[in-house]
Amino acid sequence: MDSVRAGRRAGRDRRPAAPAAGAEAPAKRRAFDFTELPQVRQLQMQRAAAEMMGIGNPFFRAHDGLAAGTTTIDGKVYDNFASYNYVGLNGHPEVIAAAQQAVETYGVSVSASRVVAGERPIHRQLEEALARIHGTEAAVVMVSGHATNVTTIGHLMNKGDLILTDQLVHNSIAEGARLSGATRINFPHDDLDALERLLAENRHKYEHVLIVVEGLYSMDGDFPDLRRVVKLKQAYDAWLLVDEAHSIGVLGETGRGIAEHYGVDPNEVEMWMGTLSKTFSSCGGYIAASRVLCDYLKATAPGFVFSVGLSPALTAAATKSAELLEREPERVARLQANGQHFLKAAKAAGLDTGPSAGYSVVPVIVGDSIGAVTLANRLLERGVNALPIIFPAVAEKAARLRFFITSEHTFEQIDRVVAITAEELDGVRAGGSAVERLLKATR
After folding, report:
1. 218 given a catalytic annotation
2. Is 3 among the residues known to form the active site?
3. Which residue is catalytic, options 278, 320, 341, 409?
4. Model confidence over 27-76: pLDDT tens digits?
């Protein structure tokens, strides 16, 4: 891990040397060879070490069809815990029909930014549905969940502002903060006492202060005390953005997210961010907020103004999914029951599930990246599809398998998968530490 960090520093600090006076200029190359970058060489070394140890790459496996409670890879059916089809709407007949009808009516693309010629009635219908679910005045839909955070935070915040983020927030939030030029300070995960101290020490130094938390953290499966976060932002005259990518459709009696879970008035929060790729079985992102803010973002946010409008099929699929979420809250109840069952079974089997609250995300902490990848591969051999999360996405000692729970899983399926995971993890640990396994492979 130290070598990875050193390689990154070397890549940042590297500068081409100026030719000496009178020296002959080097021959021009057709294009730069990116294998010369230290960070690329480091990646190649990591892959070579994995190959030497006989560890297959668990990523980019192609699925043959719909990935729901089960999935098919190379013709074989697996118990699937690697897809965030939280309430089972991806593949729903009504969702498919809505997408097909939209393609027949509008084509496969709207062929322009919505500001110019890309606006369609279905865009407004989706935004109205999202605003209704979140309990806000309006919403603005963008073509990428990641870009939604980047462009919104990067556009609203500026040099002279402060952004306070939980240290485990998504990369898109970090990138938006970096783009903005504002000062960013992380507070320890879910440590609201630390957040309060940072506000007390720093609020008076900055014009605007934005607090960013997630409705449900995608790596650990826990969530913050929203009521206290709202009180803190009100007490210090700050703004609050709640990223609900993994909590809308998951938390709350009817799946309206963390505000419903805590009984918080959604209009006390400046911005609700969400993605369309999980509960809403589509692709894209959105901000649900006041009408004034949404209108401003539509007129000025680069990620909206200079991007093509969301495609008709994706727009219609998300709109129908929102309708089904409102119509069938029993899907949320099934998801929540499955999540609690998985958490209880995993703990009973002696698995380390971290701080997960047992909703849509339950990690199984392994402790090192090689062990996590090895465990994922061993599970695949046993008919279970669950993917590893490794450094640098998480700390090396916190490498884990991440299990996504959906309404489509069964208790029997969950019990079987937990038992297999516990058995195979014992086998991985019996093989020694990551260093020991690497040393064995070189002998």
Report:
1. yes
2. no
3. 278
4. 777 888 888 899 888 888 877 777 766 777 888 888 898 889 999 999 99
